[in-house]
Amino acid sequence: MLSMTMEKVKQATLPKEKEVREGSSLLARKQALTFEDVNIYYGTHQAVKNVSFSIPERAITALIGPSGCGKSTFLRSINRMNDTIAGARSTGVIQYDDVNLLGQEINTAALRKEIGMVFQKPNLFAKSIYQNMIHALKFHGITGKDELMYTVEECLRKAALWEEVKDRLHQSALSLSGGQQQRLCIARALALKPNILLLDEPCSALDPISNSKIEDLMIELKEEFTILIVTHNMHQASRISDQTAFFLDGILVEYSETNQLFTNPLKKETEDYITGRFG
User: Which domains does the chain have, with CATH numbers?
Assistant: First the structure.
């Protein structure tokens, strides 16, 4: 459990009026995460400033903005990955399943099981494909060979990788192509049956074909999972996401349904960024 106080999921607080357009269907959807006045610091430097909005369930939300704007820092705060950085601290509320994820009582191992993360570069172990898949499962007490194999196949299929690797599960994961390695990282995250997937620029180092496969995969996975993705690729954000949040200098400038944000942004800063005038 994430907290001793966790109870049945309730509908989270809706986004603040200033951050969502009137009549937006975002307001009608159940919220997976709600952020209230989230601030993130590295020592005395404030990287994220008073961010408040909500993320709907089973949808793709893109976080965009120029390098250094705080979007990856914000993403990493959700499953407490920033805790591993000396001097980092977060304030405010990240509400998930009636629990504030920034609370001191949070079991981070349990949290990262429910909210998985895939990084910009594949972070595989120098072990076989199979060993990479079962590592976290065994850590969480799953040891039966049949159950392990069932989960490995199920998640590799969900990651559209099973047919490519089923005959070489015991070969090194590092022998895979970059795109295959990234899909293996996604499959590994899925093995723990998370509710939410955090993706930090998962396609930035991939060729166009691999990029397309990852994008297709994300669109399929949102039927089952809530997905947040950090991306510098405006075309990618517009193609795959349902909502987009634009960050600048640690501030959430605008948050809207993706089509609205890219075709009719409310803020001049947003328009300047998506049209390439800066960033």
Answer: 2-274 (3.40.50.300)
